[in-house]
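[INFO] parsing input record for UDP-glucose 6-dehydrogenase
[DEBUG] input buffer:
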Amino acid sequence: MVKICCIGAGYVGGPTMAVIALKCPSIAVAVVDISVSRIAAWNSDQLPIYEPGLDEVVKRRRGKNLFFSTDVEKHVAEADIVFVSVNTPTKTQGLGAGKAADLTYWESAARMIADVSKSNKIVVEKSTVPVKTAEAIEKILSHNSKGIKFQILSNPEFLAEGTAIQDLFKPDRVLIGGRETPDGQKAIQVLKDVYAHWVPEDRILTTNLWSAELSKLAANAFLAQRISSVNAMSALCEATGADVSQVSHAVGTDTRIGPKFLNASVGFGGSCFQKDILNLIYICDCNGLAEVANYWKQVIKVNDYQKNRFVNRVVSSMFNTVSGKKIAILGFAFKKDTGDTRETPAIDVCKGLLGDKARLSIYDPQVTEDQIQRDLTMKKFDWDHPIHLQPMSPSAVKQVSVVWDAYEAAKDSHGICILTEWDEFRKLDYQRIFECMQKPAFVFDGRNIADVEKLREIGFIVYSIGKPLDPWLKDMPAMA
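[DEBUG] output buffer:
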């Protein structure tokens, strides 16, 4: 029986291994992590991450050929294939701080694999890593190998949170990069055979190691660039009276461009986009490609500009001050159908409003109060380090209350900010909300999900990103 072990029980490792276990009942799959609480959650009825369909997959295979354990060394020693899915956070200090990936966790995983291995292994990079990481890992493994052979493969994930299980069931492509040597090609074939249980052969792409590593960064950079492009256009739409939804629809019907990732919003978030672009910038800088680095820097700058623009629009619309005013925040996760708050635009918007002394009442159907308070007090990039290295649970931000539904958040508020496109926010009884708010009552739609005309009929003053401005707002330009 082939044995697979995955180091790291997070957003990538957990769902990926669960689907492999489901589709390959003849393979034993162990997911290991040093976090006792995280592994306990994977073994319970309350999984540590929310992802539609994940519960069912885990319950079908757990205890049969899918195991979650803190006995990291035992499972690594027994495995034929070891996936490494540990964090690669952005460095917070030292060389490359704020841009380069911190490979501390990767390196310690590689050293541990070398220490405990008694048989030849295929080691698979599943985390997003900078180009040439495999070379560093190879050096660590070969210098500590005690005669054991290791083959390194790069197998980046292309999952979108909220649809991860469907993405795993029917991937656009599976990418496997390896050495162009007989042993390297053999290792590629072994991993290919695992995926071939359910993925059509023409969707399994094989490349050299460096192409696979760079393809992941490139894919995320291209997607983020599309979002920044449409968000840059949204500012111009507001200035000219154009409607960004109509513009993006017209652009998206061009088959060379396509409609995906052209929704204007308050900005992109998630664990990958910003981190991967910063990583790409650092690699470009290290290779003397300053112009290329500057090009990608602009994608992040536009994203920051969009979040600042939104905050400025809120403040300027409300007589240039939100001091002491209650603002309802609907949605804190970076997108719907996930509880993930990593790099969510909501953090920067909330911090911007708190900086102007607003009182915030926050509701999100999947994000806990503890997580929201932690996010609002944590320094940038700290979120991606293991929880025991993050700042201790901070004293709560006094101006923030976290509530159990949208109506409670909106009660007695001066304005509502929609920051996540949860379906339930489309169906709210906005007449009921309007009646319990302070007047004038504002809606700032950061996701373009509200029915603007209907809200204006009720009596709201509405700001929707990239849409023609409410007459009220035209007289109060947002300072950029």
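[INFO] The longest strand covers residues 3-7.
[INFO] shutting down worker
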